[in-house]
Amino acid sequence: MQSEALVEMEDVTKVYGMHRALDEVSFDLFPGEVHCLVGENGAGKSTLIKILSGAISPEAGIIKIDGKVVEELNPRQSIEMGIATIYQDAELVDSLTVADNVYLGNEITGRIPFVIDSKSQMKKVNEIIAALKMHLPTGALVEELSASQKQMLQIVKALYRDARVLIMDEPTSSLGMDETKALMNIVRNLRERGIGIIYISHYLEEIFEIGDRVTVLKDGKSMGTSSLESVTVEEIIRKMVGRDASLFYTRRKVDIGEVSLEVKNISRWGIVNDVSFDVRKGEVFGIGGLVGSGRSELVNILFGADKADSGEILLNGKKLRIRSPQDAIRQGIALITEDRKKLAMLGGRDVVENTALVHSENFRGFLLNLKEEEDVTDEIVNKLSVAVQDRSQKIEELSGGNQQKVIIGRWLIDDSDVYIFDEPTKGVDIGAREQIYELIVELAERGKCIIMISSDMPELLSMSDRIGVMKNGRMVEIVKNDNIEEEDMIRRFIGV
Amino acid sequence: MSNSDVSFEGRKTLTRKRTSILKSQWFYLLVAEIVIAVITGLVNPRFFSTSNIMNVLEQIAVLGVVSSGMTLLIISGEIDISVGANIGLSSVVMAMIIKAGQPYLIAIIAGIALAVFNSLLVGITARAFKAPSFITSLAFISVFQGVALAITKGTFQTIYGKFEFIGTYRLWEIVPLSFLISIAAYIVMHFLLSYTKLGRRTYAVGSNPSAAYLSGISVNKAKLSAFALNGLFIGVAAMVLLSRIGAAQPSTGSGIELKAIGAVVIGGTPLAGGKGRIIGTFFGVLLMGIISNSLNMLRVNPYFQTVTFGLLIIASLAVSVLSSYRKKEKIKPHSSKEENR
């Protein structure tokens, strides 16, 4: 660590609209060091590595690579300067061999022009693999490799290009125990060879096992960098949380009635594992957990968009038969999905059609009633104060918050018993956010069961009556929300 | 909304703004049609004679019926390029039944049912094997043609002197019945698209199948309905065509699918689905008829007519791309209209 820094970032800022994804963050990396980045979902980790890999450029700040200030960085320059990012979904060519993938675009040709010299390619790739003590068949096709082998291949590819900085984003999230151990050994090996590694992980155990230093990000700000020898898990977690009170929403209390929705032993092989919980009338049941813990998958099953292998769902004591979203809707379940653009909006269609979609499909006969559609749209627009110019405006022309209001509104025309919100305020501005919270509380007051998935910790803690914690497809515990601290919650998510 | 408590004060009633006529593709088609007609009429005044105009309308009747069905199918996000072969097969079957001395009604019902069945086959295979309907309909071209060749042994099925009513009848001795049938097809399709749940579903599955599914729409049902209706229109088109020509063979109707797709696209319905109106298709079909007739009147080499159709489709693509560029520039964050008092 005495030598000169490979990467130095000073006061780097990235702004998206009103949102500061990175706010004057400084970061550095030395040769032969594993520098870990931790923070909640949306804390700015991805933004930081995107800047380093040249995918996006910051609004302000200085980036130095090898002590030299870099004015502009595009993906190509970033690779040429020796920065390599290992993604989970690698851009590898499935139909080529391991060796061919390493040499893609730089093939060695033999004596005959245009003909690839596979033998020398294999030999050189084997040398790199041996030096790293990996197990990787050079002649195998990429489609035959496991997730961890694909990751190793990316590392080999990076080293072949003389990478000196490796960025690893959640490298172990799809790996088993043994594979994780093997990867850890390779990381140590790389460190000994003087390569600088930026290591991003939710799993704090891994970070303590392998890291030299750690930088904590929270809401786009750096909470400081410290040596991992002089810091404890508790200190890191404390830095990850602890927000301003203004980010919390104070909601009205609602009288909670009897149990209405009962979910019993729902499983879907490899994705959701034996989940049971119940929700009372007027209760907001929050579901928290890390991305990939099976939260959205669980509610997709409740809504019939995915099939469960086993388990049952009861509503007001009656067993439900749900085999499609249509069944779910008819039996009183509504799902407001996470991905508005992909899963909810009819982009090129107008506001009326988008608002009336669920009503006209499920609660009307063969003929549409255009007058009624316009009336209910007016009702929703007024009730949720959607900023819209006229009925024929296309939904894709509205702002994110207004789009979300229209999408929520389409489920309010006809009453449901259970409302499931998956990330209800994702990409929604603060004003609209409060209105959505208000609406959720109103639904609860009318005796509806609310299930709310959220990655936004203040949202989860201010809205939920109880919180189910998901981890690796299981609901590991259900916590009553009596002024739970953020710190306490995140510890449960990570499981330390 | 069962229990809404919005007071009438401060309540805003939305208006449906009339979309400017200048934004509709059909308006440009109409302008182009008028310009072409005027030019042709100046060069050859016979163009505006009643008999010529009726001739044009008669010629585009079959294309109009096929294009109406195609509009629905394309809006649903699917396509069928076996339309020509389907017409060939169902028209020879109709001709053979008539030749065998059976009542016309039986021939018509059997032919239309066969066309519906064929179109459904294209759709069902596409949905079942998760393949694009372009590919399955490509495969069914050979199947339909092969079956037609096999049952006719390759011979012409003539029914001269029989079943002429639909092709020859003229209302008030002027307006061809076939043209009226095509107008009826447009109107039925417009009604389905704009005023029924079926139409709403069609737009929804074409625009965003995932969102449609999660809103309770059965995507398979919606798409197969579009295929079945497309088959119905193909059957009607085959009937009109057979009556007008008085004969059928396996290659009857071949190539009409490309003209129909062309007319739909020129009319402003993108192949991506989810958008489009029947009025655009109407003017698209009309443009094809007028251009074809004008080129004849202007004594242009018929080979160049085919070239013209191709260029026309390219030009319409250019127009729709350019207009979408213009729209994107215009999109700004909209501020809410505060009051409406």
TrEMBL record, chain A:
Residues 7-244, 251-494 form the ABC transporter domain. Keywords: ATP-binding, Cell membrane, Membrane, Nucleotide-binding, Repeat, Sugar transport, Translocase, Transport. One of its GO terms (molecular function) is ATP hydrolysis activity. It is a peripheral membrane protein. The keyword Nucleotide-binding applies. InterPro entries: AAA+_ATPase, ABC_carbohydrate_import_ATPase, ABC_transporter-like_ATP-bd, ABC_transporter-like_CS, P-loop_NTPase. It is found in: Cell membrane. Its main location: membrane. The keyword Membrane applies. CDD domains: ABC_Carb_Monos_I, ABC_Carb_Monos_II. One of its GO terms (cellular component) is plasma membrane. This is ABC-type sugar transport system, ATPase component.
